UniProtKB/TrEMBL annotation:
Compositionally biased region (Gly residues): 205-222
Keyword Membrane belongs to the record: yes
Originating species: Streptomyces flavotricini
Domain Sodium/calcium exchanger membrane region: 38-189, 239-380
Name of the protein this chain belongs to: Ionic transporter y4hA
Residue runs in coiled coils: none
Keywords, ordered alphabetically: Membrane, Transmembrane, Transmembrane helix
Length: 383
């Protein structure tokens, strides 16, 4: 019997690890940690990531796609927003660009890293990774629009000096972001849900598989969760609770080790934007692992739902939250990207459109996206 369907004992690692990671957060919060304590918190962080992926898969198995990937994307993003606001409130002027750096890092990691890895794994398994071009194309268009409205336009507006929005412009960007996010969720989960369902790969027909049950009818899955009986409502609710505990622990433990990260970045003489990249890498780790595991089970569409859904949630929820937080946050809010990042964003959108349009991808497309992510990470370290 799969772990998704049986009742979890209190001694199961998927129960113990999130609780231990949360305790590590409680005992480390607001303290200067010595080296061994930082290592222990980092170990708890890694365990919480693995536990979060497990519980996200249990919830996804119960509610089906695209709701399953939506749960993880929204949960991670909401807590990521809380982390950004907390760090900005504590950091003063030196964190003026933290929201921009973290959100843009999330966009590049999801649209190039998660997408690239998922296509690579899917193509290695079946020679060609198959997905729904209609749903993925709509998600990509939403990501591109949100990114330009929130991260590119501030560089060119003239109401305030520097890459900043005026209060009215920031309000418009926040409302537009929230409206687009809500519209996308309505399309994804209600009106055109079939566009975001996993695609059958056995015959290569490109038709949505298993409209009920999140793709259990998919052929070729290698995990027992693929064909197992869905978990009970109670088991799914327990996993949902443990998922939230694990995600809180992930982001909280990431904040606990962030002073060490910031000190290491400063000591190495690296740009401050590297801190935002590291934060994004940490908080997106659960979604990355979940997306790769879905791709291994021939559910590349689920992987793309996670990737683009996370990018949309990252911008669509972060910008309104930051706009609201500016009521009490002091100092400037730098949102506009520099020339290098705008070029990388434009290249990512163009390459992504060419990848998504056919509804099929090979190793080449996966490799191209991973090279774009590598270029972004390299230029973040050496601008």
């Amino acid at each position: 019997m799969s772990t998704a369907t049986r009742r979890l004992p209190l001694t199961d690692w998927t129960v113990v690890v999130p609780v231990v990671a949360l305790l590590a957060l409680v005992f480390s919060w607001g303290r200067d940690l010595p080296g061994f304590a930082v290592a222990l918190v980092a170990l708890c962080l890694g365990g919480a990531v693995l536990a979060a992926v497990h519980h996200a898969e249990v919830v996804a198995h119960r509610v089906g796609e695209p709701f399953g990937s939506l749960v993880l994307a929204v949960a991670v993003t909401v807590i990521e927003v809380a982390l950004i606001v907390t760090l900005m409130a504590d950091g003063g002027d030196k964190t003026a660009s933290l929201a921009r750096d973290t959100v843009f890092a999330a966009v590049m990691i999801t649209c190039n890293g998660i997408v690239g890895l998922s296509l690579l794994v899917g193509a290695l398994r079946n020679r060609v990774a198959v997905f729904n071009a209609e749903g993925s194309g709509a998600a990509l268009a939403t990501v591109a629009t949100l990114a330009v409205l929130s991260l590119v336009l501030p560089t060119f507006t003239t109401s305030k000096p520097g890459p900043e929005f005026s209060t009215a412009q920031l309000t418009f960007a926040a409302v537009a972001s929230l409206a687009l996010y809500g519209l996308f969720i309505a399309v994804q989960t209600v009106r055109h849900r079939d566009y975001f369902l996993p695609v059958a790969t056995g015959a290569g027909t490109g038709k949505a598989a298993g409209a009920s049950g999140g793709g259990e009818a998919d052929g070729g899955g290698d995990g027992d969760g693929e064909h197992a009986t869905p978990p009970t409502s109670r088991a799914a609710l327990v996993s949902l609770g443990l998922l939230l505990v694990a995600l809180i622990a992930v982001v909280g433990d990431a904040k606990a080790v962030s002073p060490t990260i910031e000190a290491g970045v400063a000591k190495a003489g690296l740009p401050n934007a590297v801190v935002g990249v590291i934060i994004a890498l940490l908080v997106l780790a659960p979604e990355t692992l979940a997306a790769v595991r879905a791709a291994r089970r021939d559910r590349v569409q689920t992987s793309l739902n996670l990737a683009y859904g996370s990018a949309i949630a990252s911008i669509g929820l972060t910008i309104p939250a930051i706009a609201l937080a500016t009521i009490w946050l002091s100092g400037p809010l730098l949102l506009g990207l520099g020339p290098i990042h705008m070029v990388l964003l434009a290249l990512t959108v163009v390459v992504s459109a060419l990848t998504i349009a056919p509804g099929r991808a090979t190793l080449l497309q996966g490799g191209v996206h991973l090279v774009l992510l590598a270029a972004y990470l390299f230029l973040a370290v050496s601008p």
